[in-house]
Write a structure and sequence with these properties.
- The protein is α/β, with parallel strands linked by helices.
- It has 2 domains: 192 residues, Spore Coat Polysaccharide Biosynthesis Protein SpsA, Chain A, CATH 3.90.550; 75 residues, no CATH class.
- Helix content is 40%, strand content 19%.
- It contains 10 helices and 9 strands.
- Strands 1, 2, 3, 4, 5, 6, 7, 8 and 9 form a 9-stranded mixed sheet that branches.
- Strand 1, helix 1 and strand 2 form a beta-alpha-beta unit.
- The C terminus is likely disordered.
């Protein structure tokens, strides 16, 4: 199967060459890699153009945005800017951060999953981050594919209408896909290294508040937000405050009656899964070794 990669990047001068080296060493190489510089000030843009001059399958463009990086909408707009540059046909499209290193067979194994299961819509490995002493799994749900490494079947991406330019985009996409009959497949045995922790480019409190707003936009059940915020209070640093900031972001959006994503099917799928999880019912992750299925 063929694929393309789009990488929205900002201030990744220390890491982008390592990401490029891990892509160049893939046993299954991309047809195109579009690097979208999103207002870097540290030389990332120049490195991206150097890479493009060295490899004919790499393109480097600018997003046109400046100022402080934010998660959510700005990242998606940069991704869509890169997606618009693609001319080659491809079976799946990857949204890849510029601070990721991959094992050499990473995309070969992702492609095999798409080829084996006709219902596989969103696929990706598991992300490890360094905690100062060792590599540990990054905290994301076991049912989800990390936003730094998402691979979308091209038909799935069209089916869900692309990505929503908002905080929570990397949850909306999965529930929109599930609601339309696609599988979301995290591959537990396929590990990648993320060289900067999620949300580390923002002040911690702003990242958590935005996460709360994103939960409201996605249509979270209030009871699930309370449980999630309580969990974050216990496991994240600084203690208590991270979960409190998340809940404050959700509460502020709810009080303002901020808009919810315009995809009732995705919201219904999300709330149904949250209902099962609140009742303590196990929601089984979708398998990466499912037998072929006809759509």
């Amino acid at each position: 199967m063929s694929y393309a990669i789009v990488s929205p990047v900002k201030d990744e001068a220390r890491r982008l060459r390592a990401t490029a080296a891990s892509i160049a060493s893939q046993t299954l190489k991309p047809r195109r890699w579009v690097i979208v510089d999103d207002g870097s000030t540290d030389g990332t843009r120049e490195i991206a153009h150097q890479l493009a001059a060295t490899h004919d399958w790499i393109s480097a463009i600018d997003s046109g945005a400046e100022g402080e990086r934010s998660r959510g909408g700005r990242v998606v707009r940069a991704f869509e800017r890169g997606r618009a540059e693609l001319r080659e046909e491809h079976d799946f499209l990857v949204k890849l951060d510029g601070d990721i290193t991959l094992p050499p067979d990473y995309f070969e194994r992702v492609a095999q999953t798409f080829a084996t299961d006709a219902e596989a819509g969103i696929v990706g490995g598991r992300v490890l981050v360094h905690d100062g002493s060792k590599w540990v799994p990054e905290r994301v749900g076991r049912h989800t594919v990390h936003g730094a490494i998402k691979a979308y079947r091209s038909e799935t991406l069209r089916d869900i209408g692309g990505l929503h330019a908002s905080m929570g985009w990397d949850g909306i996409d999965e529930y929109a896909a599930k609601a339309r009959g696609w599988k979301v497949i995290p591959m537990d045995g396929l590990l990648v290294h993320h060289h900067r922790q999620r949300g580390s480019k923002q002040r911690w409190w702003r990242a958590r508040v935005e996460e709360g707003r994103g939960a409201h936009y996605m249509g979270y059940r209030p009871s699930f937000v309370i449980v999630r915020a309580g969990y974050r209070m216990l496991v994240e640093k600084p203690p208590l405050l991270g979960g409190a900031a998340l809940f404050a972001g959700w509460l502020h959006a709810a009080a303002r009656r901020a808009s919810i994503v315009d995809d009732p099917e995705a919201v219904a799928a999300l709330r149904e899964e949250q209902k099962h999880r609140l009742r303590g019912r196990r929601v089984r992750p979708q398998s990466a070794v499912s037998p072929p299925a006809a759509r």
